[in-house]
Amino acid sequence: MDTSPDQNQAALVKSKLHEAFDQQIPNFASYNLVAAIGIAGSGGLKVVGYRRQPAELVLAPVKTTDLSASEAAITINNTNVNQLAIVNDGAYEIATSTGRTFRFSIPRSPSVDLHLDDAVVVAVEIEQADDAADFADFMDHFMNTVEGTENFI
Question: Distance of alpha carbon 43 from its chain centroid, rounded?
């Protein structure tokens, strides 16, 4: 058993993020998960769930104070996607048919604040390099799978 505090905190953060996603998505086991940093739409921390069959992703915004769900998760698939793009800075931009636009990045090692109590907050770096690479492959697949991809930028 690894008792190093850094490893335990990273595992705790991952567990809390997974729980925030699981509470909102009834078939959560069929999704791969990554931590995302939101830039537009609903900025801040998100858990992004994605799967190839059927091709879709779910954006689950998370409260930074306790790493719980902050609003209802948004499912994006070929029924409601309006635009998909990889932005020059490596971020992703997704617009839905309802007019919402989300821009987010999937860092290889995001830093997430863990509130240990009311006075102690530590920045915990979680490792997701392999997951970030898999998500990039998924986005290529998603862009090629969604109907009318030739209309996307």
Answer: 12
Provide the token pair at 114: 């863990």
Angle at 91 between CA 58 and CA 20, to 5 degrees: 30
Residues 6 or more apart whose CB falls under 8 angstroms from that of 129 comprise 108, 109
Please report, for the domain that includes residue 21, its CATH number. Answer: 2.30.29.30
- pLDDT value at position 43? 78
pTM check: above 0.90? no
Domain that holds residue 22: 5-151
With a cut of 70, say whether residue 148 has pLDDT above it.
no
Is residue 48 within 8 A of residue 34, CB to CB? The reply is: yes
3-state secondary structure of 47: strand
